[in-house]
Amino acid sequence: MTETRDLTENLMRRLWPSFKRRLEAKFPGEEWIRPLFLLRALRAGPTQVHLLATLPANSRIISAALSRLPVLREMLAPSFNISLTKYPDEYEIAEAQRRFGIDMARTRKDTA
Q1: Residue 55 in 3-state DSSP?
Q2: d(CA 57, CA 62)
């Protein structure tokens, strides 16, 4: 299980920058793309990976990204899907580490 998760995470770390470039080309100048980070890549099935992407807790940025969510999902289909959430705060980072052994602070920094 850990090997599969590591493979998924490593694959997405390589693919994420090209996906963000595609977003910038499709939506030039939109402010929500730059702060969009990949938080986790989760295997959802044998041929499906679910991406959890984060944004700052700013209603304008989140609203703009949510309005584009159907297009993001179309761009990633059929092998990938995506959900959006706010950047984790210190409490959420500490709880993920304590309860699940997930280092979200490292993940957040490594996937700009």
Answers
A1: strand
A2: 7
Give Cβ neighbours of residue 41 (< 8 Å, ≥ 6 apart).
8, 9, 11, 12, 49, 50, 51, 52
Q: Rounding to the nearest 10 degrees, give the CA dihedral for residues 76, 80, 83, 87.
A: -90
* Chain segment 14-63, per-residue pLDDT in tens: 889 999 999 999 999 999 999 999 988 888 888 888 999 999 999 999 99
Q: What is the CATH number of domain 2-110?
A: 3.30.300
Delimit the domains of the chain by residue range.
2-110
pTM of the model: 0.80
3-state SS, residue 38:
strand
| Burial readout 60-79 (b: 16 or more C-beta within 10 A, e: otherwise) | ebbebbeebeeebeeebeee
- Type and span of the H or E element at 82: strand 80-86
